[in-house]
Amino acid sequence: MSEVNLITTLQNRGLIFHVAHENNLKTLIKNNSVSLYCGFDPTEESLHIGHLLPLITLKRFQISGHHPIVLIGGATSLIGDPSFKHQEREMHGHDNIDCWTEKISKQVSYFLDCHSNNKKALLLNNNQWFSKMNIISFLRDIGKYFSINTMINKSAVKTRISRPDQGISFTEFSYNLLQAYDFFILHKEHNVSLQIGGADQWGNISSGMHLIHRKTKQEVYGLTMPLLTQSNGIKFGKTELGTIWLDSKKTSPYKFYQFWMNIEDSSVYRFLRLFTFINLSEINKREEEKYINNGIINDKIFLARTMTRFVHGEKKLLAAERITEFLFFKNISHIRESDLQQLQQDGIPSVQIKTIIDLQEALVLSSLATSRTQAKTMISANSISINGIKVNKNCLLKNQEKLFGKFTLLSRGKKNHCLLCW
């Protein structure tokens, strides 16, 4: 990817929602190596799948020879960004924030080159400057540049003010100024000329641009990426079962893999453009041929493999594929104990079993059947399998049914499973 075409390439991939001073920004990155940043508030111990888009965009800039900075909001996370939140965020203590900051910093360093001498990514924490600032200095030196009239008309604030059941606290209201000051400090000390973020961050980014212009008379830039929803309206990164985390201890690689496998067909090629580094011409060709030889299914598998490898690495991708083979194709020949532990973590429902039971009772305990009578009918109908093997009569579950002496997979049909954990 050449510098001259970077912004155009991002646009062609659907990665730009807002961009300030577009032509000037294109000229800047054509002729210069720029420093840019994106902020992440450590309000949890892990980033989630919704954070991938800004991380990948930072990586695209780094590949093109620019200098990315990741700003961890050690201070701003104590306040909480109100942007398009229906109610005030839960306040977290310093100990939690410090712990989560360390974990998220490690996650970020996995996606960006933080070690090479040439344009390595820099990780900073805004607590470095906010911990040294007092409220009077902040109000005098920063607050005077902002009009209350303008601030209350920003979409993120206006939405909350219009809801009498929630409103917005002064604490949250001040967040916009804090993030603006982040941009100013990074511009002053690290020559940052561009801030990127999700579309919900445009109000905060534009405030930073305003502050820098008022204090320095210099032009800086802002760029946001779309907040993604699937065609069914579900916010990207969320499922009915909760957030898809990047930490494999919170969301197993198998569940991560299945997230991509289960996206709607209409989203496959858009997500290939947004989240992968595959050439656009190849993606366009795949889309043109999507109805040939199960093309759309193969491309969805390709997307799931690419994203799981990108986030979790080759070994955990292979584990996710082994589990998929085990569940959907009843292939237990290569399954490992660690794979079954992934399933126990969050892959499928599981129940703890302490004594020897028969199959009918196991089906009831696992909620695959509502009663022993229904379980008997299912067994007779040849719709139940143990570890991928069909059974047609009731039996005791003995040691030979326990994989690694610990696990038994019960299945009703192709899609309903439960893991018995002994």
From TrEMBL:
It is an enzyme of class 6 (ligase). It is found in: Cytoplasm. It catalyses: tRNA(Tyr) + L-tyrosine + ATP = L-tyrosyl-tRNA(Tyr) + AMP + diphosphate + H(+). ATP binds at residue 238. InterPro entries: aa-tRNA-synth_Ic, Rossmann-like_a/b/a_fold, S4_RNA-bd_sf, SYY-like_C, Tyr-tRNA-ligase, Tyr-tRNA-ligase_bac-type, Tyr-tRNA-ligase_bac_1. It comes from the Bacteria. L-tyrosine binds at residues 37, 175, 179. A motif ('KMSKS' region) lies at residues 235-239. One of its GO terms (cellular component) is cytosol. One of its GO terms (biological process) is tyrosyl-tRNA aminoacylation. Its EC number is 6.1.1.1. Residues 340-420 form the Tyrosine--tRNA ligase SYY-like C-terminal domain. One of its GO terms (molecular function) is RNA binding. The keyword Transmembrane helix does not apply. Keywords: Aminoacyl-tRNA synthetase, ATP-binding, Cytoplasm, Ligase, Nucleotide-binding, Protein biosynthesis, RNA-binding. Transmembrane segments: none annotated. Belongs to the class-I aminoacyl-tRNA synthetase family. TyrS type 1 subfamily. Catalyzes the attachment of tyrosine to tRNA(Tyr) in a two-step reaction: tyrosine is first activated by ATP to form Tyr-AMP and then transferred to the acceptor end of tRNA(Tyr). Homodimer. This is Tyrosine--tRNA ligase. The gene is tyrS.
